[in-house]
Amino acid sequence: MSEAENSLSVVHLILEASFLVQLVMLLLVAASVVSWVMIFQRYQYQRRAAEAFTNFEAQFWSGIDLNQLYRQSSSNPESAEGIENIFRAGFKEFNRLTKQVGADSDAVMEGSQRAMRVALAKEEEKLEEHLPFLASVASVSPYIGLFG
User: Fold this and answer.
1) What is the largest CA-CA distance in the chain?
2) pTM here?
3) CA angle 128, 145, 20 (to 5 degrees)
4) What SS3 state is found at 81?
């Protein structure tokens, strides 16, 4: 290998760079690896959530009794994802409020909707996990690279 080819190799350039430049490159590589791990995790979670949504939606619109559907979803709450959790929260609150003596139908519906909104917010939080970190890395990395 000639000296000109050796001086342009990536390994040679990294080894001959200053400590600060090497540190910046290491930081960028670490941020990239962490980001790709998070992206892969998010992809897997989103795919599972989409499958769970499709399965639950098919069950819901199949004409099954809602009490039976609630019992099925409550039997294994750890495996419940997304819309199933929202349904379970709303139906649980609906059952609780309808058992009260003299329950107003509007109050029952408002309570059920409130429980479903809270469950929806929790599910959205799960879906958006790690996105602020990924957005920060994506916006800051070019500037860190220019610094190096």
Assistant:
1) 91
2) 0.73
3) 120
4) coil
**CA nearest 49: which of 114, 122, 113, 115?**
122
Q: Which residues are within 8 A (CB) of 107 and not within 5 positions of it... i.e. 6 or more apart?
A: 97
pLDDT tens string 99-128:
987 778 899 999 999 999 999 999 999 989
CA distances from residue 56 to 45, 74, 87 in whole angstroms, order as listed: 16, 13, 10
**Distance in angstroms between the alpha carbons of the first and the last residue of the chain:** 28
**Which of 41, 53, 44, 51 lies closest to 86, judged by CA?**
53
In which residue are the tokens 């996990």 written? Answer: 129
pLDDT value for 74: 82
Mean pLDDT over the full length of the chain? 88
